[in-house]
Amino acid sequence: MRTQLLVTSIGEDRPGIVACLTEVFVANSANLEESRMAILGGEFAAIMLVSIATNNVPTLERDLAKLQTQGISVTARRTENLDPNRFAGYSNFEIFLKGADHEGIVHKVSSFLHDQSINIQSVETTVVPAPVTGSPLFQMSALVLVPPSLSAAELKKKLDAIADQETVDIELRALEQAPLSSRI
Questions:
Q1: Phi, psi of 60 (to 5 degrees)
Q2: In angstroms, what CA-CA distances link 17 with 56, 68, 97?
Q3: Residue of 1, 50, 81, 101 with fewest CB within 10 Å of its CB?
């Protein structure tokens, strides 16, 4: 029997962190199935989905904990695939947001999505210099699942209201792909 672990790690950015992590996976016959890794500030952060024989989990967890001596903080949590029917009937959308950077943008959007029972599948944010002025420009991209009770037109109208309140541009694009949580 195999177990899935959600493994998160953080360490001061330097070459070799991914090699250290994957060396532990290989030594324990664990398979790295999915991952998201990035440098944020001066830290390297990774979130990884690993599958492993259930009887090897304690040894893997012990070996991952040893990475602390190399400045890599690691946590592991057992998880399972979501029921593919959980979001049956939901529509897939991508939201793009761009505007002058200021506090509270992500909170405003995520609170709205929560209030509408919209499930966030993934979010990426960044701040870049604006092309002409060089002032901070906030950008956000999100993949979301929208319940059948909310039409695309109504969602767009409500997002436009947030865009006006936050003085940002928000685009909404319907996607035809299966939701991320139901891919196997």
A1: -60, -45
A2: 22, 12, 32
A3: 1
Buried b (16+ CB within 10 A) or exposed e, 23-56: ebbeebebebeeeeeeeeeeebbbebbbebeeeb
CA atoms within 13 A on the CB side of 133: 6
The predicted pLDDT at position 82 comes to: 85
Q: Over the stretch 100-122, which tens digit does the pLDDT of each residue have?
A: 999 999 999 999 999 999 999 99
- At residue 165, the 3 state secondary structure works out as helix
Long-range contacts of 161-165 (CB under 8 A, 24+ apart): 162/108, 162/109, 162/112, 163/97, 163/99, 165/108
Residue type present at position 4? Q
What digits encode the pLDDT tens for the residues 42-59? 999 999 999 999 999 999
Predicted confidence band at 182 (pLDDT cuts at 50, 70, 90)? very low
Encoded amino acid at 73, one letter: S
CA dihedral 152, 155, 160, 165 (to 10 degrees): -170
CATH of domain 91-177: 3.30.70.260
Select from 3.30.2350.10, 3.30.70.260, 3.30.2420.10, 2.40.30.10 the CATH code of 2-79. 3.30.70.260
Q: Which of 58, 40, 47 lies closest to 7 in space, CA to CA?
A: 47
